[in-house]
Amino acid sequence: MAILDLKRKLAILSDAAKYDASCASSGAQKRNSTDGKGVGSTEGMGICHAYAPDGRCISLLKILLTNFCIYDCAYCVNRVSSNVTRARFTVKEVVDLTLNFYKRNYIEGLFLSSGVIRTGDYTMEEMVRVAKSLRLDHDFRGYIHLKLIPEASPELAAGAGLYADRVSINVELPLDESLAALAPEKDAAGIKKAMGRMRLAIEDRNEPVKVGRAKPRKFATGQSTQLIIGADATKDGDILARSAALYGSYQLKRVYYSAFSPMADSSARLPLIRPPLVREHRLYQADWLMRFYGFSQGEIVAPGEDLDLTMDPKTAWALRNLGDFPVDVNTADRETLLRTPGLGTKGVDRILLARIQTRLTLEDVKRVCGSVKRAKPFIVTADWTPGAATDGAGLRASLVEPQQLSLF
Amino acid sequence: MRVVRLESEIDFDGWRDAARALRAEGVAPEAVVWTVERDLFEGAGSFPPHKGEGRAPEIGEGRILKVPAAFVDLAKTVILHRSPERLSLLYRILHRLEAQPKLLANPADVNVAKARDMAKNVGRAIHKMHAFVRFRLVEDVTPETFVAWFEPAHRVTEAASPFFARRFANMNWSILTPDACVHWDRSFLTMSPGADPADAPSQDAQEEMWRTYYASIFNPARLNPVMMKQEMPKRYWRNLPEAALIPQLIEQAQNQTDLMVTAQPTKPSERVLKAALRHSRDGSYGESNLANLEEVAAGVQVCRRCDLWRDATQGVPGVGPALLSGRAANLMIVGEQPGDQEDLQGAPFVGPAGQLLAKAMAEAGVVRAQTFVTNAVKHFKHEPRGKRRIHKTPDRGEVQACRWWLDAERRLVAPKVILALGATAGLAVFGKAVPIGQSRGQPQPLSDGGQGLVSWHPSYLLRVPDPDAKARAYAQLVEDLKQAWTLAGEAF
Questions:
Q1: Coil, strand or helix at A205
Q2: How far, CA to CA in Å, does A273 sit from each of A232, A266, A277, A404, B222?
Q3: Which end of chain B is less packed: N or C, by CB atoms within 10 Å?
Q4: Whole-model pTM?
C-alpha cells in the first residue's frame, strides 16, 4: 500500500467526515487557559471560524481517525463494500493537527469520528487516546466532540465522557426497520442502550459530590444524534415522532437532520438524488417549534404525513387554525404570540417589553421584529387590522415561499 | 452651535465628560456638532478642559444627572461603531432620558432601536473578529510567537482582545489592524497605533493544510453561496487564507454533483451481501418454549408483539431467583411497567417507585434477593414532553401482548404467591380487572396453581396528594407485603 502523506490523509479523512451534520461547539463548561500550560477556552457560545460554499459553518476540525470500516451501511461512503481510497491517522497526527489549527485560530476544537476497525472496543480506545493526549499531555482546553461506537464497552464510553465535551451516537435512520435493512450490522437496540447509559453518566456528573469521595473530572455535558433524511421512505411525521422520543428519552442537546447526499461510489440500494435540502430545512424549523415554541409533535404534522415544503411549519399550522387569528400584539399572552407566524422568540420578548410603555403600531412591530411581512395577515396592532385578509382565499397563495431554488 | 472635539474615535470618557457638561447646560441635541481630533495637540483649549472626573454634574435646581447603568454599557459599545452619527445619537438618548427614565426599556423607540442596532453590529464585529483572525507563526522565534493582520468591521480591536488573551494565554501574539494593534506577552495586553499589512508575516506552512481541510469538508451537492456570504461577508475574505479557494470550489460544484448523480452505483461483493443477510435482524422470536430466564431476557429485547419497543430504550425483564437456579423464589412481585430510570438501566424497580417499594419490603421483612421482581409490561410506555417523558398507562392490548413474557416468567419461577401491584399488574396476573381497594388482603387461587394477591402500586403512593391518605396506603402496602411473604412460607 502506498504511504500517504499527511495532506492527502487529511483530504481523505475530512472528505469522509463531511456527511455528519453536527457542528455545535456550544454548551461546554466555561474554562480558559490563564491558569494552565496549554491553549484553549470555551465560553458558552461556540464560534464558527469559517463557512464553506455549502453555507455550513466550520467550527471544529471534523475528521475520521480512519475510514476503514467493517460495516456495510448502504448510506455511508465508508461502508466496507465501497471503493473509496482508505487512510488512517495515527493518534499523534490528529493531536498535532488539532493543536496547529487551534493555535492559528482556525477552529474551536476537534470532532473525531471513525470507521469501525477490528472491534468496537479497539476503535473506541484509539479515539479516546486522542482526546486523552490532548487533555493530559498538552493541557488542551478547547472543545472536543467524540463519536461513540455503540458496540464499545460502557467503560470505554465513560472514558470518552471523561475527556470530551460532547459525545454522540448517530441513530442515522428514523425507523429501526430501515436501519435493519440498510445497516445490517448496526443494532438499533444497542444504540438506544448506549444513549441511555450516556444519559445516566452525564446526569451522574451533575449530582453533588459526596464529601470525601473525589470524582474524576469529566468534561461531557451533553449528547446529540443525527438522522439521515431521504435515504428511506420514512415520512416527516414519523421522523419528528422519533426526534421527540429521543429528546425525551436521552436528554439530547440536539437532533441533527442530514439530507441524504449523493456521494462518490454510492450503493445500488439507495436513491441517487439531489439532497432534499428544503425538506431538511423544514424539519429543523419543526424541531425548533417543538423545543422553543411550545408545539407538540402532533400539532405540527401527523404520523404518516409529510410537512408542507412550500411554507414554514408554523405558518402551515396557522393556516389550519385560522380561527385563532388575528392576534392582538398589544394584549395577547406570550404563548399565543409565539404561535404567530413571523414572530420569533426574541421578537416576542421585545414586544412584551415595549408594550409596557406604548401601544404598538405596525411600524413598531416591524422595528422590533425586523419585518412584518409574514406576521401582517395574522396580527392586530394599534393602527392595523388584517380585516378580511385573515380568511381570504388568497392568503395561502400569498404565503408560499418561492425559495426552493435559493437553497441550492 | 457647540463643537465638541474628542481625542479619538473611541474616546468614551471624553464623550461622557462633554455630554455631562452639555446636558447640565441644557444644550439641545440639535445644537451640538461632534468631531474627532486627529492631532491631539491641535485640540488644545478645546472642550472639555478636564477629563474623566467621574462625578455626575448638577443639571440646574440642584438636580443630579443620573442615567441607568444600561445606558453606560450601551454607549460604551455604540461608540465603537464606525457611523459618524453615533455620538449625536447617544447624546440625543441621554437628553431624552431625563423626561423618560425608562426609555431604554422600550425597544420600539426609534432612537433606542437605532442604538441597539448599532450595538448589535458592534457585537457582531467583535464576534467575527474572534472567528476570522488568522494567526501566522513567526519563524525561528522562541517562545512561539504568532502575528495576525485583521481588518475589523468596527473599531473593536481593543474590545475583542481579552478573548484572545484568555484562549491563547500561553502564547506570544499580536493582532495588527489599521485602527490599532494589540499585543500579548503572556502577562499583559498592550495597545499600539494602527499598522500596515506588511508588518505581519506573509505566510504560514499550516495554511496549505487548512485549505486542504476547507476544500474537503465542503459538500458540493449542497452548494449554497448565499448562506456562506451572509455569515462570512466578502469584506473579510482578503485576510482569510481559505477564501481564495471559494470561486473554484463553486465553479466545480455543479459538475461534481452531476457526476455523482449520474454515475452507476457500484456493485457490492457477494461476500458482503451474504454477511448482511446473516446479520439481518427482523425482530422475530421463536414460538418454542423458553427454557430459562436468560432466553426471556434476550427475547424481550427483540419483542415486536406490540409497538411499545419503538420509543423505549430496552425491554426490562424480571430479576430474581428461578426454579432452575437451585433456590427458587416463592414470592413474585409484579409491577406495572418500567419507568424512565428502569428503561435506561434495564432493571425493574430502580427508580423512585422502586426505592419506595424497597423501603416497604424492608419494613415488611421481605428479602429482595429471595423475591422475583418483574413488571406486567416490559417496555416503558410514555409520551415525550420536551426533555421529559410522561408515563402513560399501558392499554389492554399491550398488557395482553406482554402476558406472553410474564407467563413465561411465572412458569419458569413457579412462585407460591404472586403479589400484583396496581390495576395493570392485576389485569395481567388475574386476566381480569381487579379493584385494588376492595380486593386487597384476600388471596385468590391462580390458574397455574399458586395464590394471587393485590396491593397499591408504589408510584400511586407517590402521586397521592393527601399526606394522611398516603400514610394509610403505605401502611396497607407494608401489610400486604407481610401477608404475601407469610403466605409464601418465607416468614419465620
A1: helix
A2: 12, 11, 11, 16, 12
A3: C
A4: 0.81
User: CA-CA distance, A319 to B215, in Å (whole number)?
Assistant: 43
User: Which positions in chain B touch A52 (Cβ < 8 Å)?
Assistant: 214, 217-219, 228, 249
Q: How many CB pairs under 8 A join A and B?
A: 281
- The tens digit of pLDDT for each residue in B18-34 reads 999 998 888 999 999 99
Tell me the three state secondary structure of residue A178.
helix
> Closest to B224 (Cβ–Cβ): which among A184, A270, A408?
A408
Angle between helices A154-163 and A188-206 (to 10 degrees): 50
Kind plus residue range of the DSSP H or E element containing A277: helix A277-292
Q: How far apart are CA B481 and CA B111, in angstroms?
A: 73
DSSP result, B229-252: HHHS-GGGGGG-GGGGGHHHHHHH
The backbone torsions φ and ψ at residue A230, rounded to the nearest 5 degrees and listed phi first, read 95, -5
Asked if B217 and A62 come within 8 Å (Cβ–Cβ), the reply is: yes
CB spacing of A43 vs B166 below 8 angstroms? yes
pLDDT band at residue B46 using 50, 70 and 90 as cut-offs: very low
Q: Residue B139 corresponds to which amino acid?
A: E
Q: Which residues in chain A are closer than 8 Å to B382, comparing Cβ atoms? A: 248
The grid cell for B220 is 458540493
Name the residue with higher pLDDT: B277 or B309.
B309
Q: Please, what are the averages of pLDDT over each run of 10 residues along chain A (408 residues)?
A: 80 91 81 93 92 94 93 84 87 97 98 91 95 96 93 87 89 84 82 88 64 53 87 91 91 90 73 81 94 91 91 93 93 95 94 93 92 92 81 72 48
ipTM over 0.95: no
Q: Is A167 helix (H, G, I), strand (E, B) or coil?
A: strand
Q: Which chain B residue lies closest to A81 (C-alpha atoms)?
A: B268
- In chain B, whose CA is at the least distance from the CA of A37? B170
Q: Please name which of A75, A22, A45 lies closest in space to residue A181, comparing C-alpha atoms.
A: A75
Residue-wise pLDDT tens digits, A34-45: 999 999 999 988
Q: Are B107 and A350 in contact (CB under 8 A)?
A: yes
- The rounded Cα B362 to chain-centroid distance in angstroms is 40
Do A262 and B110 make contact, defined as CB atoms within 8 angstroms?
no
The model's confidence at residue B143, banded by pLDDT at 50, 70 and 90, is confident
**Alpha carbons A163 and A142: distance in angstroms, whole number:** 11
Tell whether A356 is within 8 A of chain B (Cβ). yes
Cα–Cα dist A331/A380, whole Å: 10
Q: Is residue A406 within 8 Å of B226, Cβ to Cβ?
A: yes
Q: Rounded to an integer, what distance in angstroms lies between the CA atom of residue B129 and that of residue B123?
A: 10
Residues of A in contact with B175 (CB under 8 A): none
Q: Which residues make beta-bridge pairs with B189?
A: B184
| Residue from B316, B329, B315, B325 nearest B292 by CA | B325
Q: Do B389 and A14 touch (CB under 8 A)?
A: no
With beta carbons under 8 A apart, name residues in chain B contacting A7.
208-209, 212
Distance CA A350, CA A342 (A): 14
What is d(CA B489, CA B487) in angstroms, rounded to the nearest whole number?
5
Contact A249, B313 (CB under 8 A): yes
3-state secondary structure of A54: coil
